[in-house]
Design a protein that fits this description.
heterodimer, A: Rossmann fold, 8-stranded mixed beta sheet, two-stranded antiparallel ribbon, 7 helices, B: alpha+beta, Alpha-Beta Plaits, Palm domain of DNA polymerase, Topoisomerase I, Chain A, domain 4, 7-stranded antiparallel beta sheet, 5-stranded mixed beta sheet
């Protein structure tokens, strides 16, 4: 099942997870399965559920995860600022779910919240850039800002056939269900070739791109 | 000593001190409040910048460089800028302006500000070292106006110390003025602060000098996931205004409790009266931090430490719960699984003030937990270190623990004829602070809170409860139930028991916190959980054995069931207590249901006085925000129609008159006349209250209704078909 999800490239990836909060855990688990080094999970709004993370990451992988939770915009900003002291080029992944949430609360004056949020996005981008580590963010609020600041956007959707993940270099071809798997047409096209042999190859990316 | 601080329009504080039987006012024009600024990583160039930036500001009268501790755990003083402010009451404004300036010139957070959001009156006492404890008993005058009259601006319903003030506006004015003159009160206890404005409009000044001020408009806020409402606040010269509708401490204690915190926190009476428990705790902490030369941060920037998933998982576990599967257990259980059931001859043991005692005995405090100077894994499960230096939090709570223990001992030893009201009120007031201190550590805005402290307290508590359970079991006792800080045990069959008090004493010695013997129950019944999953609200009731009860006045101990709940109507509460008596007689369901049938019949005959059916409910939303047509929504709509605005966080009292209707006709407000009520609606509540009593025997509402239907005879025919 994991081969049907992308591993993450260095840079900031915005996971547009719409109505599928589970996509975050699946993506993190998938990425870490092939990775070494530790993971920093800068949490907001209780996304860092140990149970949910472990469900999608095996023991070794789960042990590499370090979590710190922010409960106010000020704390979130301070934790973002502390990342450069923690993260190294060997870091497997930085996860920042609900990156905008705490800045949207009314316990921080708007002008300060804006400034801290801007600085947060800049810092994450600079960190990803300087150390060539993947940074995965999700957002409920200010999604356009987050999308613009990210190097790429991956969308996750719950479909009747299961979780579907689309990104610039990835698309889910096989959907897993509790009862087995079901494939999509691009999967067969990729496997057997298009019916029209003269046509251009279908614009299909490999199912599990190398990073 | 100054019991009231007025802040004049020009920002000058005026102290009102007791002077013999009278009072004396002294203005203090020399006083200047101050706030402090420190720079990230102590980079003084930011302080230089700030000194230049505020130089032209007339609100800032002086800028000085000092060195202060900026955190509880700091080992060295940091360079700070002390900004003296011209007017008391303008400190916050200056703080906000500095933030704005910082924002325009620097990255966010290069400056941290301190001592910004203190009550002006509290600040004045702290800065000048003045003790706000009154030098004599204060004279109190109580003014009350029922909510409906307040809404209608009708002063003729005003009472002064319980007596009507007068029948028309002129008589009311004269009545209040006469009372002010003859009593010359130091404290005005008002049913609502709005009475100040209403009387001012009628030409009566409640202060010792003319005029009054509205300090803040009413507002609605969210705190701890609960919606609260704070009404408008007023201030009058020379007298303390206490708004009874907005004083948690007065509502849960008395003036004696308030006076205690005035002394302990050094915060004047008026400000303590309207404080939340969090506010009182913060005041105690700020005062103690000052003694350590630590400034009070405006915005808390301390963050959680990076932790593993294992630690996070362990840290997030709640308090101790032990709910054995009672099927076939040795405790004489007689109910279904999930820890419910009835148990005979049960002893209750409680750790007294477990969480605050852990804070003190185990030195848990924001600056001691996860210290860098001590190795080792002092905190069970989490492996956090704990520093040996004197913890801040223990120092704050220690005097409260000791005082309360002293009062409790005096109450216990008191002669029956001696009044212990003041001692009990003080013990209650302190109890609220003690029970809140643990949760407050995890509160995100707590100035000196820290999440790891909260986690460590919990981890110690679990270990202590497990230790107690093991020792009791080893001594021949069977633990039938345990939750948070209480354990219930019976003698294990075929075992010899070490006397339970002896075991408790041994546990006390081992863990360093007293495991108190609460008493013996002839029987105790634990209710099944309402939901299969999730944290169980603890619901139980039991009958104390003769002579062993902790409180002799109460025959039963009730927790979590309807008769204990504020929202239950008096009729249902009284009926449930009667059902408890029936339960006690045989602990069989049928006689209890027979009693229920009699209460149902009374209800159906229309014989219940309407006052006994009043439901008090705290509303969480405005009428328009309720999605479903609830009774609370109906009550709010009715109140609005009658010009009686209720806001989220406030309570509303109503009687259900026709539950099948929606909107304002569904209910009547408590103060409206009439005798009609919806018998079916209250019958449902009665049956539910009965189900709580019979739940431990495995009877639910459906079973109760079946029984009632089956035994219907001539005398019971007044009970309907039971929906």
């Amino acid at each position: 099942m994991n081969s049907q999800l992308p591993t993450l490239e260095p840079g900031v990836t915005f996971l547009d997870d719409g109505d599928t909060p589970a996509a975050l855990y699946r993506l993190v688990g998938r990425h870490l399965a092939d990775a070494n080094g530790s993971t920093y999970w800068l949490d907001a709004r209780n996304a860092a559920s140990p149970d949910a993370i472990r469900r999608h990451a095996d023991g070794r992988v789960a042990r590499s995860v370090r979590v710190a939770r922010a409960f106010t915009g000020y704390q979130h900003y301070e934790l973002v600022r502390s990342l450069p002291a923690e993260v190294t080029p060997r870091t497997a992944l930085v996860v920042v779910p609900n990156v905008a949430s705490l800045y949207a609360e009314d316990d921080v004056p708007a002008f300060e919240a804006e400034a801290m949020f801007d600085a947060t996005l800049e810092l994450l981008a600079a960190l990803a850039d300087a150390l060539a580590v993947p940074v995965l963010v999700t957002a409920r609020e200010r999604r356009d800002r987050v999308r613009d600041a990210a190097d790429r956007t991956v969308t996750a959707q719950r479909t009747q056939a299961g979780l579907r993940v689309d990104g610039p270099s990835f698309r889910t071809d096989v959907y897993w269900h509790d009862w087995g798997f079901q494939t999509t047409i691009p999967y067969w096209v990729d496997l057997l070739g298009a019916a029209d042999a003269d046509a251009e190859p279908a614009p299909v990316e490999p199912a599990a791109p190398e990073v | 000593m100054a019991f009231k601080i007025d802040v004049r329009e020009d920002g000058v504080p005026v102290r009102w001190a007791t002077d013999g039987e009278g009072v004396a006012a002294t203005a203090d024009p020399e006083y200047e409040p101050a706030l402090y600024a420190a720079a990230r990583n102590d980079r003084t160039r930011y302080l230089d910048w700030l000194a230049d930036a505020v130089a032209p500001d007339p609100k800032v009268t002086a800028v000085e460089r000092e060195r202060r501790f900026t955190a509880l755990g700091a080992t060295e003083r940091s360079p700070v800028l002390r900004l003296s402010i011209d007017r008391l009451g303008e400190v916050r404004q200056v703080g906000r302006e500095i933030r704005q300036r910082e924002h325009e010139a620097h990255a966010p957070g290069v400056l941290s500000l301190y001592d910004v959001d203190l009550d002006p009156q509290f600040r004045y006492c702290l800065d000048t070292g003045r003790d706000p404890t009154p030098g004599r008993d204060l004279r109190t005058l109580s003014l009350s106006l029922p909510p409906a009259a307040l809404a209608a601006d009708d002063l003729t319903a005003l009472t002064v110390d319980g007596d009507s003030a007068g029948d028309d506006a002129a008589a009311v004015r004269r009545g209040v003025e006469r009372a002010l003159e003859s009593c010359d009160p130091d404290v005005l206890v008002l049913s609502s602060g709005d009475i100040v404005a209403l009387l001012a409009d009628a030409g009566v000044d409640l202060g010792r000098r003319p005029g009054h001020r509205k300090l803040a408009g009413e507002s609605t806020y969210a705190s701890y996931g609960r919606v609260g409402h704070s009404p408008a606040r007023y201030d009058v010269p020379g007298r303390v205004v206490v708004d009874r509708s907005n004083s948690f401490l007065l509502g849960h204690s008395s003036m004696a409790g308030l006076r205690y915190f005035v002394e302990r926190a050094g915060k004047p009476l008026q400000e303590v009266a309207r404080d939340s428990i969090g506010g009182v705790l913060t005041a105690l902490e700020v005062r103690h931090a000052r003694e350590r030369d630590v400034l009070a941060p405006w915005q808390k920037r301390q963050t959680e430490r990076w932790k593993s998933l294992d630690t996070l998982h362990a840290a997030d576990r709640g308090g101790f719960t032990f709910q054995p599967d009672t099927g076939g257990s040795a405790g004489g259980a007689n109910g279904d699984a999930g820890g419910s059931g009835v148990h005979e001859a049960v002893h209750e043991l409680d750790f007294a003030s477990l969480y605050p005692n852990i804070i003190r005995e185990y030195n848990v405090s924001p600056e001691t937990i996860c210290c860098d100077c001590h190795d080792g894994a002092a905190v069970p499960e989490l492996g956090y270190s704990v520093c040996e230096r004197d913890g801040f939090l223990g120092d704050v709570l220690g005097p409260l623990l000791d005082d309360r223990a002293g009062w409790k001992a005096r109450i216990a030893a008191a002669d029956e004829r001696a009044s212990t009201d003041d001692l009990e009120a003080k013990a209650d007031a302190v109890k609220w602070v003690l029970v809140s201190c643990f949760g407050y550590q995890g509160y995100r805005h707590a100035k000196f809170g820290r999440i790891e402290t909260h986690e460590a307290i919990n981890a110690f508590a679990r270990e202590i409860m497990l230790t107690a359970k093991e020792r009791l079991e080893a001594a021949g006792w069977h633990v039938v139930h345990g939750i948070v800080d209480s354990l219930w045990v019976t003698a294990a069959p075929d075992r010899e028991q070490t006397p339970v008090r002896e075991v408790a004493a041994a546990v006390t010695d081992e863990v360093g916190i007293e495991l108190e013997y609460e008493g013996r129950f002839d029987w105790i019944a634990f209710c099944p959980r309402k939901r299969a999953s999730g944290a169980a609200l603890m619901r139980y009731f039991g009958r104390w054995a003769d002579g062993t009860a902790a409180s002799a006045s109460e025959r039963y101990k009730l927790r979590g069931i309807e008769a204990r709940q504020r929202s239950t109507s008096p009729f249902v509460a009284a009926a449930q207590r009667d059902l408890l008596d029936a339960f006690d007689r045989g602990r069989a369901p049928e006689p209890v249901c027979d009693r229920l049938a009699r209460h149902l019949a009374t209800l159906r005959r229309g014989d219940v006085p309407r006052d006994d059916l009043v439901v008090t409910q705290r509303v969480s939303k405005r009428a328009g925000e309720y999605r479903r047509a609830s009774r609370a929504k109906a009550a709010l709509e009715r109140a609005a129609e009658r010009g009686f605005e209720r806001n989220p966080g406030q309570s509303i009292e109503y009687v259900v008159v026709d539950d099948d209707r929606s909107g304002a006709e569904r209910v009547r407000l408590a103060f409206e006349d009439g005798t009609a009520y919806d018998a079916d609606c209250y019958a449902d509540r009665l049956v539910r209250a009965c189900a709580s009593v019979l739940g431990p025997l495995g009877w639910d509402e459906r079973r109760i209704r079946q029984y009632l239907d089956g035994t219907r005879d001539a005398s019971l025919s007044s009970f309907g078909d039971g929906r």
